[in-house]
Amino acid sequence: MNPIFALIDCNSFFVSCEKVFQPHLEGQPVIVLSSNDGCAIARSNEAKALGIQMGAPLFKIQNILRKNRVKVFSSNFSLYGDMSARVMETLKTFSPSLEVYSIDEAFLDLSSLREEELFSYGSQIRKIVKLWTGIPVSIGMGSTKTLAKVANHIAKKHPFGCYVLTKLEDIEEVLRTFPLQEVWGIGRQWSKKLSYVGLRTAWDLAQADIDWIRKTFNLSLARTALELKGLPCSNIEGLVSSKKSIISSRSFGKSVKSFEDLQEAISFHASKVAQKLRQQKSVTALLNVFIRTNPFHAEGAYYTNSCIVPLIFPSQDTAVLIKAARAGLEKIFNKGLDYKKVGVMALSLASEDQIPVSIFQNSKDLLKRQTLLKTLDKLNGQFGRDSLFFASEGVHKTWCSKVSLKSPSFTQDWTQLPRVR
Ligand SMILES: [Mg+2]
Predict the structure, then answer these.
(1) Is 185 part of any domain?
(2) Separation of 239 CA from ligand 1 center, angstroms?
(3) Which of 38, 93, 204, 243 could form a disulfide bond with 199, CB atoms 3.0-4.6 angstroms apart?
(4) In angstroms, what is the span from residue 226 Cα to ligand 1's centroid?
């Protein structure tokens, strides 16, 4: 049985999510902005055709946007997260092995299929994902993950949206004109280095001597070369294992001066970290709290500082984390500065059932707290994120990032469900 990997990639994912709930956007130029509305991070085909580049700063493209009536959205990450989960759930029905690679990409193991079945199976996956979630996807298949990625590039430009790259003569023809920079894991910096030694296309790398590559460069490049030759060096990696550290941080929409506002923001991030800890069934023994001013601001010196706060008992309790994070903030706060970013990071994680109960902790109280937090998570899961939150996170959250052009919370708020007239 020859290994077959399929890479499924959602087309213009963030824009596609917006289109699912606002069908009138179909055929129109649409872009989605990064947090704080800084630059374009997703573009519809119509927007790409206007010459709007990936990562273009908003202020530089204002003219094009106005002239062509481009629809502009702030990023709505909770919507994209929910839509991503729907796509991945759907993909799971097509193979027992799924690897979620990013918010809009996943690998499937299709080794059990015969070669002549691959294209029609891929077309079927595209059809069902579009039907069940509304999201269009492109599918590339190959005998290694790297070749599946290459095939996906072609699928994106192909009218069928699915491309199978398994025949040796096809592989050679495609790789001969495939720029190294586009190969998975290589990028611009490396492709520049490799061009000095005469390697310019994916085919050049696939033909190069593996030992020489490993000695001259590194093992990971040698693995890429092997994968381009059709020899798999990595497999489908089921579910991502628990994270070793957890972070929550964000830039402010406008700079923040007041200690009270920073306290709210820090509490908000501590609460998010606690929630993520409970989700992956971990506890933390160490928090890192950090703040910084704007490094690009002309006036005033740049200030950045952080503080490690050890917890007496490893915890996943929101109240405990908020208290510790606030204590950390007090130590690093400097009055009179314009702060641009704060965050909280949980380090030294352990599994929640590896923690011995201390004799200084009342196990009855602990159980009560656990039940309370479980209820909190359950209610927020049922009625939408942040339906219930700790008052110290602030009610109005004036320090929140600017999301002036955000679409409604179509998937999380009953009052914002799309209307059908
Ligand atoms: Mg994509």
Answers:
(1) yes
(2) 20
(3) 204
(4) 25
